[in-house]
Amino acid sequence: MTASQFHPTQWTLVLRARGSDEPGRAALSELCAAYYEPVVAFLRRGGKGEDEAREMAHAFFESLLAGGIGAPEPGRGRFRSYLLGALKHFQVSRHRAEVAEKRGGGAEHVSLTAAGLPGRADDGRAFDRDWALALIGRALASLEAEEADRAGRFAALRPWLDGAAEGSQAELADRLGMSGTAVKVAIHRLRQRFREKVRREVAATVSGPEEVDEELRHLVGILSMG
User: Which partner for 9 in 57, 85, 169, 204 could form a disulfide, CB atoms 3.0-4.6 Å apart?
Assistant: First the structure.
């Protein structure tokens, strides 16, 4: 993807006006909806129950959508990094407000660490892994939607996207009533389209075409760590 092929996407629209105009707010809303689950998973790892984590995620996104994004800090120009930083800031601010309310009633001060706020070194890696899985899920869903009129064939070919297929391509060809060559071509094209969709999802969360490959390498590396 070259600079001339890189059109304004969700995150670039948000950055252009800090999410304050209508297109920017709509783009930010779409991105928040797309990556809601990694936020919930992060909060659950911090000790929140399922319901509490979803309630807090909802409050976080409401705050983000109401207030815009401000100016991302250096190194947080990508939506993934910005969102994690904003989430941690939201947790700290919310915790401080809760502590202040308790102290007003004579409650003992509770430290941020004791409150279970994120502090482990692997918090960011776990969040990035959930992010990568969510991104892949969106790419797969888009690909499946395109193949809706050939749902059976797509279901049979899909395991070949990630190496999870059982049996041989010859067996698959017999099952689908296709030649071996036709199956190989179909798998190749499906993989190519899937890669394109993953790149498109990544491009929507970075601020320029020069960041797409680097972001892809980072997410692939995170997934390879298991």
Answer: 204
